Amino acid sequence: MSENTVDTLDTIELTVPDQAAGQRLDAYAASVLPFSRNAVQRLIDSGDITLNDRETVGKRKLRSGDIISVTPPPPAVTETLPQDIPIEIVYQDADIAVINKPKGMVVHPAAGNPDGTLVNALLYHIKDLSGIGGELRPGIVHRIDRMTSGLLVIAKNDAAHASLSEQLKTHSAARVYFALAEGNFKEDSGSIREPIARAKNDRKRMAVDPEGRSAVTHWQVLERFRLYPEQDITLLKVRLETGRTHQIRVHMAYIKHPLVGDEVYGRGKNKLGIEGQALHAGELRLTHPSTGELMTFYAPLPDELENALRILRKKTGCDA
Predict the structure, then answer these.
(1) How many CB atoms lie within 10 A of CB 90?
(2) Residue 152 in contact with residue 107, Cβ under 8 Å?
(3) What is the mean pLDDT of residues 231-253?
(4) CB contact at 8 A, 36 and 84
(5) pTM listed for this prediction
(6) 53-89: buried (b, 16+ CB within 10 Å) or exposed (e) per residue?
(7) Beta strands in the chain (DSSP E)
(8) Is residue 4 over pLDDT 50?
(9) In whole angstroms, what is the distance from residue 173 CA to residue 244 CA?
(10) Active-site positions?
(11) N or C: which end of the chain has fewer CB within 10 A?
């Protein structure tokens, strides 16, 4: 899911923090939800935003510990049209296609991104796509963030979709990422096993939460860049065992090693010319839904990351 999109009808619960005490309900809700002030007011008027399980008014003053419950409106039904947007198809047969998604492209249409997405491009370039994901997500089995580049597998029929979804659920399909993280890791490898949920006080973020869904991230150091007195940077190979929203970004920030360029969980600004998180889905392993063949696909690092590595190696005297 992209950072500013709500695509679920599940109720969201927000706990009012101490610093928000005294604020109006409508003003505070608009500041932490991806809705305008007018949209928030409509949700309050319709009873879809309640305070402590009771309908209320927008001008109600908040107290620390109040519970705001929000039922998002259903997404607008729109026709998703094919668009002639260039995409890199790494592999394709009658059942699956593997795409190398560029950084900056949203995977599927949603609020704020009605077109120009990977789905729009797929509808133009690929004749058959599974229908399990619905009109807005044909063929989409899994997603990566807008500012993350790399490999996605697309299902071209419902049987393939069901098989791939089961592989992801049981972890028999493997997704490997390459990332630049801030700081120097004391160990050469490790695992992060911390549950993740949507942040209680900010709908746009995810967070480690004991009440969240289980999440496991395995990491391995590939290269260290000691940049004293600047911030050290580490090149990591990361394998996902689960697939929670923003999982790698949240877990790395949790252990005090946010990804370089991450504007949500890290510092954002950097001297390497990286816009958005330095994260690339470079390897994908799966079992073919029809043949049973174990297949591995690779996508080389994008130019942005290669350029950053050249800069880092030159700074540390490791350039070839």
Answers:
(1) 16
(2) yes
(3) 95
(4) no
(5) 0.75
(6) eeebebeeebeeebebebebeeeeeeebeeeebebee
(7) 12-15, 49-51, 67-70, 88-92, 96-101, 149-155, 174-182, 189-193, 196-198, 206-208, 216-225, 233-240, 279-287, 294-298
(8) no
(9) 15
(10) 145
(11) C
